[in-house]
Amino acid sequence: MPLLEDSVGVEDLVLLEPLGQESLLKNLQIRFEKKEIYTYIGNVVISVNPYQQLPIYGPEFIAKYRDYTFYELKPHIYALANVAYQSLKDQERDQCILITGESGAGKTEASKLVMSYVAAVCGKGEQVNSVKEQLLQSNPVLEAFGNAKTIRNNNSSRFGKYMDIEFDFKGCPLGGVITNYLLEKSRVVKQLKRERNFHIFYQLLAGADAQLLKALKLERETSLYAYLNWEASRVDGIDDASNFRAVQSAMTVIGFSDEEIRQVLEVTAVVLKLGNVELSDEFQADRILASGIHDGQGVQEIGELVGLSAEELESALRSRTVETTKEKVVTALTIIQAQYARDALAKNIYSRLFNWIVYRINESIKVGAGEKKKVMGVLDIYGFEILQDNSFEQFVINYCNEKLQQVFIEMTLKEEQEEYKREGIPWTKVEYFDNSIICNLIEHNQRGILAMLDEECLRPGVVSDSTFLAKLNQLFSQHEHYESKVTQNAQHQYDHTMGLSCFRICHYAGKVTYNVTSFIDKNNDLLYRDLSQAMWKAQHPLLQSLFPEGDPKQVSLKRPPTAGAQFKNSVAILMKNLYSKNPNYIRCIKPNEHQQHGQFSSELVANQALYLGLLENVRVRRAGYAYRQGYGPFLERYRMLGRSTWPHWKEGAREGVEKIIGELSVASEELAFGKTKIFIRNPKTLFYLEEQRRLRLQQLATLIQKTYRGWRCRTSYQLMRKSQILISSWFRGNMQKKRYRKIRASALLIQAFVRGWKARKNYRKYFRSGAARTLADFIYRSITQKFLLGLKNSLPSITILDNKWPPAPYKCFNTANQELRRLCHQWKCKKFRDQLSPEQVQVLKEKLCASELFKGKKASYPQSVPVQFRGDYIGLQGNPKLQKLKGGEKGPVLMAETVKKINRGNGKTSSRILLLTKEHVILTDAKKSRAKSVIGLDSVAEVSVTSLSDGLFSLHLTEMSSMGSKGDFLLISDHVVELLTKMYRAVLDATQRELPVTVTEKFSVKFKENIVAVKVIQGPGGGGNSQLSCKKKGSHGLEVTVK
């Protein structure tokens, strides 16, 4: 693997020195803090969740990693996805990508990134795009029904998912198959504090319209439903309403019909309403305590939704029928038993609905049986879990992770062994922890924990969790990986953390203590036959199909398989599937418990590194040779280290590598030469090569600099010498040319006089005196006619912005050509002006005037160019009260806007309405709509304005004016360019004089008898919509800051 010069830390932990838990965590932390979230262990990708969006994804990066091999760029999930896809496409090898990690580590996002990369790099076409869209749209549907907010993660997958994406021989997707594992259906009826039920319930209540909610007999408020934790009904960053619309759209894309979508939502509503069925104590006629329905409204609504009579559903919830081959016994349920039956029904309905959705998606994306296909599997499954209270769910999850670890070790060693065999290198047996003893402890058919649990569930008589634990203690008392309170007491050990109802297994990732409470119930996963039969009787096609065992024609007295047995069989099928494919691993790590970006908890990451077996993975990778590379790339990288291989090597790559190693005197036991690769045993050897390369590069850089400097000096000297010779030769040549031109001119003059004398003599003798002039005129008229006709055929378009013009064919026509060009342009301008309305002409004149006044002088002028001059910014036409301020003056108001007047005394500003007419400038109190000052345009002597982007300007009045005693006006306008342009034109029209407009940052204003120097400065962050602040500087100074 090339070591990138700009890498952060060690990009491949196989090369980490020294290797240990502390150095591994430190390397991950250094890379995480620099936002390098991906690290390799050989071809395994470690992904640390950044909890923020990073600019390392998208089409640009997909194209980048598509064109390079695994180790040529920085570690990235795209690199692993590319290797898997290219191996599947080019080498005909089925692939699987195993994504593991605990909740909140980013497994779901990692699987999305893998699928989006594969979708981006595979083929195009209408059918291919349709398949890709269906595969991608399956994610939001499964997330809605299978994900939930937990304490650790706002979008935690509460099920395991394995997707096989199937491709044709060209690498284009044909479809896929999804397999789900162990949905956490207990969440349907109960959630921990600050956790939510599955997303779909909240999305339905938030996103469904009022008509749909009414049809489903639901209310929008989540606090009305017992199965929903109302304390966490809303989550920051999650928009349930928009997600509901996205789920509906995704189901349509996948191929669900409108009727199927409606039925899925009806079954979801049934689960919600089951939680609101309240049960109470009742006494039967024989005074036996039983259960009853507290309020029949909920049962009635459920019956109406699914087409089932309320009496049948109520009977199924309150009683249980026990049927044998000879008799049938109906017993009433106590309130606790009825509550258990109600919750079991809700869990089973939701679990079976989820399985049906997966089945329905598979039906849409499945591939025809006759098509030849290649497969890429993506496994997104729970990571190893060690909680404070570990129950049956954690037991089967950790069992699955034990099997995955077994696959990882065996496949890794197998891959190593095959590569060594392929390269002709002797294979040395690698010592590692074989966790098959733990797997056998759990899954052995006769003596495994799962087998004992099934046996206890099926055993007649009194069965409890305690009897199950007693059987385990008896059977595994001598097992080195099993502990309990009984086995510890037998060995005279004291452990206060071990409860009486607990047992402990020493997993590969550490010891986990399991509480056996509810193991029997969760493994049995019983649903009373009365409830199954009631659901089958419903006139709801989807709900009826979920309970085929309720059909009286298919009644079976055979006990259904337990949850543990089903999961064990699923894991066995999964393992068989994984062994048949080439594995690729993504290990996801959660950096902190608070989902905060930039925080790295070493203790938390250390536990996850232990669960994931990262250190053991590295040791297995380093057990043989830590580093290997093809001879070609190795020679290309290190050939500057050998005298014979640098700068050119014309023989084979392997011979070149052997030359380099021989000249560096590397110990032979540190190396092995394969058929196509060189293998290096110790990372220190690789680091030695890198250090030698770095020093050699410094030497070569110095050599290049030295050579370049010498070349530059020689080139400069040669250029100076050439220039001196050129100047000297040019000077001498010029002197000779001048002398030659004088001699030649004299000779030509003499020749001309002689030829002229002879010509005149012959002309007088043979020709008329005017023949030459006539001939010359004829020639000139001919070329003139040709010029004008050619100009006629190549005239430019009449567009005023088209400045093209054909050049003159002869120099004598240059002046005429330019004049014709000018006349044509004037004609086009006149034609353009004739098309303009009077209003457009007026606007054009104003814009031209503004350009003459402010272009290149005022910073805010460019922003005013594309903006139309409106004149009225206060709604003057619709405000009769403001129109009265004109008084008796005739003519329109040229400009009406709100300005700020700077107070003469303290520099504070007050709002004024400014009206500009053809003869006056009127300043009005903005609140009282009363004229404060009326200034005649003949009284305005000058205007001062700054060159910055502010709107400050000063009206300098003549001393003889009626307002002259009060002094000048210092104003702020948001449309200063438009205002001063209109004022300039108004003064010109009224007084036939040009109003002086001075652009400066320093000017003086007269306030009554005082002269105040105004200084305008640019403050920090100036630009855009500038703000002004005024500060008095003594009695004769005012500083204005533009912010």
UniProtKB/TrEMBL annotation:
Binding positions for ATP per the UniProt entry: G101, E102, S103, G104, A105, G106, K107, T108
Region (Disordered): 1022-1043
Matches recorded under PROSITE patterns: IQ, MYOSIN_MOTOR, TH1
Domain Myosin motor: 8-694
Keywords: Actin-binding, ATP-binding, Calmodulin-binding, Motor protein, Myosin, Nucleotide-binding, Repeat
Sample GO molecular function, one term: calmodulin binding
GO biological process: actin filament organization; actin filament-based movement; endocytosis; sensory perception of sound
Domain TH1, first and last residues per copy: 858-1042
Top-level taxon in the UniProt lineage: Eukaryota
GO cellular component, one term: microvillus
Positions of region (Actin-binding): 571-593
PANTHER family membership: MYOSIN (PTHR13140), UNCONVENTIONAL MYOSIN-IA (PTHR13140:SF291)
Family: Belongs to the TRAFAC class myosin-kinesin ATPase superfamily. Myosin family.
Protein name: Unconventional myosin-Ia
Gene name linked to the record: MYO1A
